[in-house]
Amino acid sequence: MRGAPPPWWIRLLPVLLLVAVTVASTVTEHAADLGFLLGAIPPLAVLSYGPLVTAVLGVLVVVALNVPVTHLNRPGNTDLLTIVFVALLSVFVSFVRSRRDAQLQVERTIGEAVQRAVMPPLPERVGRIGCVGFYRAAENGTLVGGDFFDVREGPYGVRAVMGDVRGHGLTAVSTVVSLLGAFREAVLDQRDLESVAARMDRRLQTDAAGTPDGELFATAVLVEFPAGARTMRVVACGHPAPVLLREGGAREVAVAPGTPLGIGLAGADPPKEVTVPLEPGDRLLLASDGVWEARDDAGVFYPLPERLAALAETRDGELPTAVWADLARLRYEVRDDATMLVLSPAPGDRPA
Questions:
Q1: 3-class DSSP state for residue 336?
Q2: pTM higher than 0.85 for the full model?
Q3: Which pLDDT score is estimated for 168?
């Protein structure tokens, strides 16, 4: 995808080089040997400008080489034909790059529309729960991938989900759409998290029937904050457990590990719901495999609970970006989609 524009000094470099060589060669004949530097101006212009500006700079280079006052028009000082060829080639390259950038911009716009449709930006608060989401796709330039999360309020409280489907990139988007649709529907209908997980599992099994290898699966962790209660309930389906931040510390929530979605919960032991008491100021961080399985140069996994304890004073809205910056600072390599979700119950909640 088209990235950030080049730094200002790169944009100015072709113009500054043209002015510097021209002025120097005008002031003294001894600077005539610098004429070869003018040949670099058209290729430099390609980095920052379109074909029109590149052509203008190429014409100015040729003019500067043929003005007697610059002392650059002497035979042997520069190869005029070579510079003319380089200038024409630079205009062509700039034209191709501009067309490519325009096409990639259209594709990026489509990707952003897909991302908003699949996973709309989370509001700052859903019911009584503060929410902060973070998403980085594994494939460079890709806005959506195989990770997903959502937070919804229903008749049984606020429920959240984070999951990771098989594969990543655009091939996984259709599976993500199916799972999120099943979750959002189950939030309204199902009385407990185990039933929500079963609904999502059934959705995957149905979709798997239409795949070439008949195999679709996803890991997921579901969290429920019942209305009026200072507890939360957690169901883990093959996904890393949430991390609870409390009083400057952080610990992984003890959950009953369950089978990944799509394997067939009906034919195996269903995931068990675990109830966890909450205290004022508690926060919950859910992270995908991309964060948990990031490795350093020695192949050691990123110690997420330990690092979260060191970042415990970070505000909710800045916590995911602080973890991401910590991964980069400690040189951990992230090889999968990296997704984080911070959930924080309102401090004034009291049991019913």
A1: coil
A2: no
A3: 58
User: HSE (CB half, 13 Å, CA atoms) of 195?
Assistant: 9
Each residue's pLDDT tens digit, 34-74: 777 888 889 988 888 889 999 999 899 888 888 877 767 66
pLDDT for 350: 42
